[in-house]
Structures are given as structure tokens and as C-alpha cells.
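User: Mind C-alpha cell order:
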Amino acid sequence: MLISPSAFLAQMLQFAVALAAAPLLTGWVNQCRAWLQNKTAPSLLLPYRQLHKLFYKEPVAADNASMLFRTAPYIVFGCMALACGIVPALSTDLPLAPVADAIALVGLFALARVFISLAAMDIGTAFGTLGARREMLIGFLAEPALLMTLFSASLITNSTSLANIVNKMAHSQFQLYPSMAFAGVAFTIVSLAENARVPVDNPATHLELTMVHEALILEYSARHLALLEWAASLKLFAYSCIGLALFFPWGVAEVDAPLAMVYSLPALALKLAIGGVLLALIETVSAKMRIFRVPEFLATAFLLAVIGLLVHGLLEA
């Protein structure tokens, strides 16, 4: 299959925007959260400075670390970068659009989770094993809820392709779907859990009784740690773009309108900026819950997503 120059340009632009803007989105959320908590806000460019500092350091690993421990950061980073590349954030005319299936996307997140969990247990430390078990528990509950949320949109468009979902939702007559309201709440809960945000996790703490994400990367340093931190920012960017594609798809360029990407880039920046403020607001008004309450929190997301599917069958089919 021949790839048009506009499609190739859109794909490369999407990869470039994701890699460059993901740390900026993390910095923006941290800055907004500091403002809402009446604290001195860190620099918007602080994530870039941290990545620059870590990439120029020499990595240190334990003597019993295997190749799995050393290669896991590259695999996790590659999975998150690919996830950002297949979500139609700027244009639906993407060469990777045929593989941008909802199940394949969830599979990418699951693959990254498996490798980072195995790498955390590879050293044999108590913190790594603790974090890996908690991460797999969260993933076991969050992934079905995410799939049900994506299926709610796929029932409306009769397709599990994200590109087709965006085309249907953005370029058709405006309608209100009650099922998407339930799916939106479920997706918000899943996003908070998957990105280690309050109330499920707090990436700014190193308390052994509460940390999940930090326990997984505690033994990493230098470029390996930089790749994992960059991958975490890419995951937040990917989930933000998935949410925008499902619930706010307007502004994404169509296949036959490549020049619309000139307007889709500032539209994406505006939507991400608003989403960053809302995420910071949720973290500010929420309290960190105990770890044994997380299954109930994610079970609620799954239940809401299933209710969305039932509402679609009863009211919208």
C-alpha cells in the first residue's frame, strides 16, 4: 500500500509533537497543581532539564541485574511512543491508522506494564517486588475498564479503530450520547490510576506504604531513569489524546484535508492545556486513598463503563 506524502508528514509530525510536548504537559500539570495549592510553581521546562541531566550521567545497576533490567526502559519507552503515534491527535490520515485498534492500544499499555514489573522484580529488592505486585493489580482492574470505555465509543461508530471513531464523532451531526457520559467518568478514573496520579498514587512521594510507580523505578539511574520518566510523560500524553479523541474530537484533520493540520496543532495545544488544569484541579481536591481501596475505585470505573454499554443498547441502538 502506497503512503501519501501528507500521511507520512502527519505521522512524523505526530511522533515529533508527542516526544517534544509530553514533558511539557507534565511540567504544565505540576505547575498548575502548585498554583492551586498556593505553592511556588516549578519551571515549565523543569522536566526537560531533568531529562538532560539524567542522559549525561553514567548508569549504575546492581551486580545481579540481568539484560531484562537493562532493556526494559527501552521497551517501555518504545511502547509509549508507539501508543502516542497511533492515537489520532492531529490527523486521521496516518499510516499507522489501520493498526490503531482499541484492543491493540490496550495491549501496548499491557506490554509496557509487564516489562517494567518484571524489571522491578529482577533485582530482588523488597520495594521493586512490592511495586510490581501493586502495578499488576492496578493493571488487572484498569485494563478491562479501559476496554469497556473504548467499546462504548466503538458501538456508536461500529468500529474499534480510533481513526474511524474520530471521523464519526467529529465530522457528523452533533448528538448527545448518554452512554458517553458514563464512559467519560470511567475513563477519568482509569486515567488517574494508569498515570499514577492522586488519589491512586502520588509520584512525588517515596513512602514505602503508598508508592507504586516510584517503587518500580527506584533502582534505575541515568539514561535508564530518563527513558522511564520520559515514557511516563508519554503515557500521560497518550491517555490525554485518547480522551480527546473519544470525547472532544473536534479540530482533528481529515484524510482529504491535510492543510487542516495547521489548525489542529494549536487546537490540540489548547485542549491539552485545559485538560492539564482539570487534572491538577482533581489532584488538588482529592486525597490519597489507601492502597486496599484502589480495587473498589477501579471496580467503580468498570461498572460505569458497563452501564454505558447497557445505556447504549437501551437508548441509542
Remarks:
- The two ends are 35 Å apart (CA to CA).
